[in-house]
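Render this sequence as a predicted structure.
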Amino acid sequence: MASLTLRIPDALERQLEKASKERGISKSNIAREAIERDLKIQAWRRLREQFRPHLEKKGLFTEADVLNRLAEK
């Protein structure tokens, strides 16, 4: 497994330390989860932008529109 070193503000370090203790997991695990979540969100945004023109042609403008259409089927 690769390692990563990063610098964070002291206030964020305190929040991270508190969250680590509360959740009973390492600060590394919290950071890894946050990075994974952010990368998934960014991938979803890129995908949504890629399909936006096709969806709008079908009258689908929001995620709720898409989910409602899927629920109809």
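Summary. The chain has a mean pLDDT of 95. The first helix runs from residue 10 to 23.
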